[in-house]
Prior knowledge:
The structure holds two protein chains of two kinds. Chain A has strands spanning 3-7, 10-12, 18-25, 33-39, 45-51, 60-62, 70-75, 80-85, 94-103, 109-114, 118-122. Chain A is an all-beta fold. In chain A, the strands form two sheets. In chain A, strands 2, 4, 5, 6, 9, 10 and 11 form a seven-stranded mixed sheet that branches. A four-stranded antiparallel sheet of chain A has the order 1-3-8-7, with no helix packed on it. Chain A starts with a strand and ends with a strand. The mean pLDDT of chain B is 96.
Amino acid sequence: EVQLVESGGGLVQPGGSLRLSCSGSGFSFSDYYIDWVRQAPGKGLEWVGRTRGKAHSYTTAYAASVQGRFTISRDESKNSAYLQMNSLKTEDTAVYHCARVLRGVSSSWIMDVWGKGTTVTVSS
Amino acid sequence: QSVLTQPPSVSAAPGQKVTISCSGSSSNIGKYYVSWFQHLPGTTPKLLIYDNDERPSGIPDRFSGSRSGTSATLGITGLQTGDEAHYYCGTWDSSLSALVFGGGTKLTVL
């Protein structure tokens, strides 16, 4: 079964750090981008960033709202991706999902499998 | 303020048809493929449409997508109460170098 499972969420104070993990199974992990998408309470979906697959040298990209504070990495030996979150703000409170993305020819992209998410609460 | 503009809500009766619009610009919808996602409260977002008009396996043909210029549209026919959910469009934006989502549309099946 193809699946993604997030872990590592919790309660953290403003200015603190947290590291989320996304473990994949049932597919060739290195062939896929892994995106992080969050949903704050009462808000819509917001893209956080991504780590591209082997074909794109595992490069990363970030939303402006987290650039410089969040870092995405991956470990192919563990079929896992990570979201290191530093200098956390109250507005980073959200459910964080990881999702796999297959990039095809001519800019085709398919975000077809999502994890159930892990909750991050930033509060004093 | 989302880069992609969706109506906050739409509604229709069971069995009817509804369309949800997603308006963007030349740096996003006008240039890149659009996907649509269904999100029911407490569940994982579900891919309904990718590459403007393609359905993943398992998605019924009641769901359709289209793109024209800098706008995209999701269509749902034969509405069911189980279709009540939030729907999001998404695509890449070259000006922001980021994936962007619409603000979401809440569908109510009356």
